[in-house]
Amino acid sequence: MVPNVFESHIIDINSQDREAILTHFRWVRGETERLVAPLSLEDQVVQSMADASPTKWHLAHVTWFFETLILTPYYKGYSTPNECFIYLYNSYYETIGERHPRPERGLLTRPSGDEVISYRKHVDSAVENFIANADERTWEIVGPLILLGLHHEQQHQELILMDILNAFSHNPIFPSYLDHITLSEKKAPRLDWFEFDGGIYEIGHKGEEFSFDNEGPPHKEYLEPYQIASRLVTNSEWKAFMSDGGYERAELWLSDGWSIVQNENWKTPLYWKQIDGVWMAMTLSGLQMVNDESPVCHVSFYEADAYARWSGKRLPTESEWEIAASGMEIKGNFQSKGLLQAEPADGVLSSFPEQLFGDVWEWTQSSYSPYPGYKPVSGAAGEYNGKFMSSQMVLRGGSCVTPVGHVRSTYRNFFYPHMRWQFSGLRLADNI
To answer: In 204-263, at which residue ranges do the beta strands (DSSP E only) sit?
Structure first.
């Protein structure tokens, strides 16, 4: 059984509250190591594709972030335990220097796993001392950076689970990350629709709570009247799409998507396979029968868009999704629940859409681009989001492997439209 990695931990932290930041720092860092605990040393060094990274690399990289962006420039007297870490564990920060090629991270058998753990302990000790002793002027700068580093580590907690699932999916014995979980036998409710008036709405993050720079600044947008589905698209509904030739009908697909369908022979969502006439899916609990009532997962933007066309509907824009989610309590099937896979909606129609948070990231039809007035922050931290605002699509809401407390109604996730290894699904929308 997985160690107690699934305890809820939500703290509304002021970046100048040193005690709260210290508590949260210890918790997030501990969560990462508890998340990794069920993995063998062999599990932690494998890289199954160029887009994924070995667990050991994740452990080192999130530590590199604190060292490189906080300790080295701001903590006098700090020294790294190994100069090669600066090169090996840089991900994409051009302002910091050269880095090891991403597709070759699985070749880094050295430094060893023990050295990486020692590195984490070294940096943890330095950060804790820095939090306690930094002067007020320095802390005004560093406090927000530490919060950024903690949210960055939570993103990598999700990536660890994404990447290990992809690695395990290539293993013919279909290993499990955690003991088998008995899923709910709930039946998904009938699909209903919630209508929203057209008009001018304010979009984007406002307030003092933490947010990434790409969530702002707040700005006005005009929306036409629209409606949004009461729940996510289910596996049963996806099977109907497949049975109706969804993956064979060119008219349903964007051109780039159709090329990928043909070139890569897509016939199903990622991780699905038919065994003795039964649809099975690889999960973090091993190979399981596809639950018809659960939301479809591991589909690309191209697949989501094709399904929406097939159904006579469309994907929501990210602004439409945000307005639908605004003011709602952020609760759902997150990593803290321990299922680590999507589950059916509650089955009881309510006065608001279900499953807006958790279960699966929801594709929108919105390209990932800057909001009006957006300016990246200065320095290396400015490379965090802004440089990726090209050729990617926005997803909203979080998933079953997203750390609880990490997501907001304004949170903008983004992936290239062909990617499927993230826990992504869809919700339909339509014009009124």
So the answer is: 219-223, 226-229
Q: Please, are residues 16 and 143 in contact by the beta-carbon 8 Å criterion?
A: yes
Query: Is residue 362 a contact partner of residue 336, using CB atoms and an 8 Å limit?
Result: no
Please list the helix, strand and coil fractions of the chain in percent, rounded to the nearest 5, in that order: 35, 15, 50
Using CA atoms, how far apart are residues 235 and 257, in angstroms rounded to an integer? 21
Strands 393-396 and 413-415: antiparallel
- Decide if pLDDT at 263 tops 60: yes
Residue 413: strand pairing partners:
395
Residue 160: the pLDDT is: 98
- Say how far apart CA 54 and CA 118 lie, in whole Å: 18
- By C-alpha distance, which of 285, 387, 253, 400 is closest to 336? 400
Contacting residues for 347 by C-beta, under 8 A, at least 6 apart: 186, 187, 188, 189
The sign one gets for the Cα dihedral 197, 202, 204, 210 is negative
What would you report as the CA-atom Rg of the chain, rounded to the nearest whole angstrom?
A: 22
d(C-alpha 145, C-alpha 152), whole Å: 10
3-state secondary structure of 240: helix
Write out the two tokens for 270. Answer: 């990622």
List, for residues 370-415, the tens digit of each pLDDT value. 999 998 877 777 767 778 888 999 999 999 999 988 999 999 999 9
Is the torsion defined by CA of 294, 300, 304, 309 positive or negative?
negative
Burial class from Cβ neighbours inside 10 Å (0-12, 13-18, 19+) for residue 276 reads exposed
Q: Residue 191: left (phi > 0), alpha (psi -120 to 50), or beta? A: beta
- Listed range (128-142, 329-343, 345-359, 362-376) with the worst mean pLDDT: 345-359
